[in-house]
Amino acid sequence: MNRKQIRGVYLVTDRPLCIHHSLEEVVRLAALGGVSFVQLREKETDSRTFLELAKHLKKILKPFSIPLLINDRLDICLAAEAEGVHLGQTDLPWWEARKLLGEKAIIGLSLETKEDYFSLIQTHPKPELDYLAVSPVFDTDTKTNTKEAWGLTGVTWLKKQTNLPIVAIGGIKESNAADVIQAGANSLAVVSAICSAKDPKLATENLSKKIHSVV
């Protein structure tokens, strides 16, 4: 995938937050609503269930040509033949993931602090990553183990530092979506704004409209 195409609404799944629909139905409705990416995040489940979910979501998304990314787990990504992986600061090093997944895979890396960014460019001035994720932009209940929120000024700061696309995550919803894009994000990663919506399709459409109102 061309790195410049990292944009739009990025759904990060959370099964406990899927209160009106099953995970699979949320993903299907989000796909109908025009979501650009889906990241399967499973922090508690066993590996076999994780893999089965990944394969199921892959089938749902295939007709829409929407990439499925796997959170943290390179083994699940490979076994499910997903399009890529999202990695945190304590996960498998992204350069090792690139070796195993190849050039075509989508690989994103979370940055929790400015120091994370400086460490990245000190060791890899031109990292072979597809995007950097600012995490979290705002304080949120879905990401409880992260550092201080970046805020809009943090998004703008990172935009000035890198040519890589920026995915913003954390506390993003329809009311602040346009502000985050205006600050410099290319894509908005959301969890509860879609997973907990009564109408995930409409929620995705509304978020997308906010993005395109700025871009």
Based on secondary structure, the structural category is alpha/beta
Number of helices: 9
Distance between the termini: 20 Å
Structural domain tally: 1
* Largest β sheet strand count, sense and barrel closure: 8 strands, parallel, barrel
CATH class assignment: Alpha Beta
CATH topology: TIM Barrel
The gross shape turns out to be globular
Q: Judging by the overall fold, what is the CATH architecture?
A: Alpha-Beta Barrel
| Total DSSP E strands | 8
CATH superfamily: Aldolase class I
Strand order of the largest sheet: 1-2-3-4-5-6-7-8
Low-confidence stretches: none
Rounded Rg: 16 Å
Q: Averaged pLDDT, please?
A: 94
Helix-strand pattern: EHEHEHEHEHEHEHEHH
Binding site for 2-[(2R,5Z)-2-carboxy-4-methylthiazol-5(2H)-ylidene]ethyl phosphate: 140-142, 171, 191-192
Protein name: Thiamine-phosphate synthase
Organism: Leptospira montravelensis
InterPro entries: Aldolase_TIM, ThiamineP_synth_sf, ThiamineP_synth_TenI, TMP_synthase
